Amino acid sequence: MQLTKIMFGCIYVPPENSRYSSKDAFDEIETELITLKDQSTATALLGDFNARTGSLCDYIIPDDELSKILNYDGIDEIDRCLYDYHYNLCLYNVPLQRSSEDKGRINVYGNKLLQLCKNNCLYIANGRIGNDKNMGKVTSKETSLVDYLIVSGDLFPYITEFEVIDFDSLFSDIHCRLQFNLSSMLPDDLLDKNNSPNVPSKHIRWIGDKRDQFVDSVESKLTIDNLSNQLDTLDITNENFQTDLNELVESLNKVFLDSAIENFGNKPAKISRNSKQSSTMV
């Protein structure tokens, strides 16, 4: 199957029982998925779900005969899940049963996330692929797995790397980073643009030796007091709240991106004519 459009969703669900939590959070995510599903051929959700799922099943192996007996009319969904199981998982050696180092209690959000996956033929990548295969490393406080990459089965053949990076306080207070590579076949006509001056640039990966310089660059562009003042001006009751929030997020992104370019530089993206393959770091 050729992927033409991939829908990426960056997720943050506030912790259960916190002042910002919502019992409808996962229903809202599912509603968005259903609304946008016709605009993409594959889905990837990435972020902090604050959901502890242990190693419980995130899938249902559909029984075609039973569905016919029960007169279930969701034939398209049955066919899709069967295709995922027999082709995208089995053929590419992706274990149906995932692993997890999180042995803690499954929380309410965990059960909601598992149901979200089952309803939409999505799979948790943690503990199934890459360097995390048969592991399912914890991602928060060295005890819980709450940060996930969740994908439709169509994406498994294209994920060349996946791992949970060791905790680094520079990036988060308690969370580990997730790192994965996607590889896609490129049409021939794109290869002719390799020497174009408009070819997109690809930022160099993190250089540990320049960590302090990067931090200094960020701090020179944005102070905590300044950020606090900007947050204080946000008014959730204002009709322009979402626009103001988006602009603030964009400005923060620019600070980190500009600082990265200053210290790590950038280089032209290279496209191999032989393999017609490109890797993307997310």
From TrEMBL:
Query: Which SUPFAM superfamilies does the record cross-reference, listed alphabetically?
Result: DNase I-like
Tell me the protein's name.
Answer: Endonuclease/exonuclease/phosphatase domain-containing protein
What organism is recorded for this protein? Mytilus galloprovincialis
Q: What is the lineage of its organism?
A: Eukaryota, Metazoa, Spiralia, Lophotrochozoa, Mollusca
